[in-house]
Amino acid sequence: MLGKTYDIKPSAEKQYYLFTSEGPKGKINKIVLFQGIGENRYNLAFGDLLFGQLDDEVVSNNRDFVKVLSTVAACVYDFVKAYPGIELEIEPVDEKRKMLYNAVFKRHHLFIRQQFRILGVITDTLEPYSQEKLYDRFELYHKI
Amino acid sequence: MKNEAIMEAAAKTREKKQANTPEFPPEVIALAEKATRTIAFPHKYLPAQRRFISEKTKEIYSTTPELPIRQVVVQILSKLPDFLPPDNILDVTRLIVEQWQMLSEEKAKALPA
User: Fold this and answer.
1) pLDDT level of residue A23 (50, 70, 90 thresholds)
2) Which one of A18, A27, A90, A101 makes the best mutation probe of the B interface by having the most chain B beta carbons within 10 Å?
3) Given A23, A137, B23, B108, which residue has the most CB atoms within 10 angstroms?
4) Cα distance from A80 to chain B (closest Cα, Å)?
């Protein structure tokens, strides 16, 4: 269901995962970071490791975004194996990614629902996910 | 014999896993490690943290509105991760106090004179 993914390298505590995107722009190192907010809530961030810096706004244009997103999903599934029952916040950094993430949830919500309760947020209002709506951000609650 | 077969299978799995795990230069690892010790993406993290603090403050106020503010701060700070920098701890503390005061004022206004 996840489709093709890149090989991932988790950190010892699985707080982050590294992988390398490969495409017309070459090899780009990427990080998926699970940063604790409080209790068992985490913020999911991912971006490129470029020139000694992390960048989650850069558009890589490596023509592999499906594979990259599948890899991010693989990281999430691996992370919840280590930390079951967590809550995960997913917030797109720009309008383009907002549309992309909404499209991903719309397409895969039935699969995601097998392991997570999905909530969506529109202008600070949290509600159970509906595929008919366009959300500003998402909250995933891992089912134990 | 059975144990040997299990050990062999486990070793093979380990080898396969190692073969699939990509390697990264030390500077990439160092950068990733550094990201775990700081607020890596503040533009995403800080609003999420603010929401969490607000939610927890309301939760505590709804059950124990008479709790001393010091205990409210301690309770919420104890739920936060260790990597937060000092200025963020100060901001969080300020936010909790302001929220608590706001909730107390709202309650006072709602009470009949």
Assistant:
1) confident
2) A18
3) A137
4) 18
Please say whether the dihedral angle defined by the alpha carbons of residues B51, B53, B57 and B60, taken in this order, is positive or negative: positive
Q: How far is B22 from chain A (nearest CA, A)?
A: 6
Cα–Cα dist A11/B32, whole Å = 9
Tell me how far apart the alpha carbons of residues A78 and A72 are, in angstroms, rounded to a whole number. Answer: 10
- With CA atoms as reference, the chain B residue closest to A51 would be B28
A140: left (phi over 0), alpha (psi -120 to 50) or beta: beta
Residue B20: enclosing H or E segment and its boundaries? helix B2-20
| Mean pLDDT of the B8-26 span | 69
Which is higher by pLDDT, B1 or B25? B25
Residue found under tokens 């691996």? A78
Q: How far is CA A34 from CA A22, B32, B110, in A?
A: 23, 11, 41
> Rounded to two decimals, what is the model's pTM?
0.86
Does residue A36 sit at the B interface (CB-CB below 8 Å)? yes
Q: Check residue A64 and give its pLDDT.
A: 84
Q: In terms of C-beta density within 10 A (0-12 exposed, 13-18 middle, 19 or more buried), how is residue A75 classed?
A: buried
Q: Which residue of A has its CA nearest to B56?
A: A38
Q: In this model, does residue A35 exceed pLDDT 60? A: yes
Q: Quick one: pLDDT at residue B23? A: 87
Of A31, A39, A52, the CB nearest to B27: A52
Report yes or no: A119 at the B interface, CB cutoff 8 Å: no
Residue B17 has pLDDT above 60, yes or no: no
Res. B80: pLDDT tops 90? yes
| Cα–Cα distance for residue pair B64/B100, rounded to 1 Å | 11
